[in-house]
Request: fold
Amino acid sequence: MATTPHRVTFGPFKGSSAHAVRADLRKLLASLRPTEGETLHAVFGGAIPPNSDVENQLIYNVFDGASTVALSRGVRFELDDADAPAGAEYRYAVAPAGAPFKHWRESQDAARCGQGYRSWQAPQTTFCRVPGGDFGPRRWRSGTS
Reply:
């Protein structure tokens, strides 16, 4: 885990605190090696700008070639902005692949597709912000009901 007063942006300036935090995170990530039945659990604590998303904060802005081994068995990522620290908090750990999310919850359907969309292969569950600032998986179902 790393906490910094500044978010790690893509390509932080060399010598900046964000650059140092990114280097430390990359070392940690290079040491994480999920085995069968495990996945990388990544959590960003803090507020993110409206033109970004949690995946960019945790993956795109941080990872390099050496740290991608942590992604070898997949990744589960979450945004924890309930008690957002003054800066940003990056949490990475190997966890059981089927473990529940800690900061998101399952909620109602986000959309349904009619009979004409049978060839559309949507994921069974996707995650998005729900009214009131909560997060939760949203189930996409085809067919009518």
Observations:
- DSSP finds two helices and seven strands in the chain.
- Strands lie at 2-4, 38-45, 75-80, 88-96, 111-113, 125-130, 134-142.
- The longest strand covers residues 88-96.
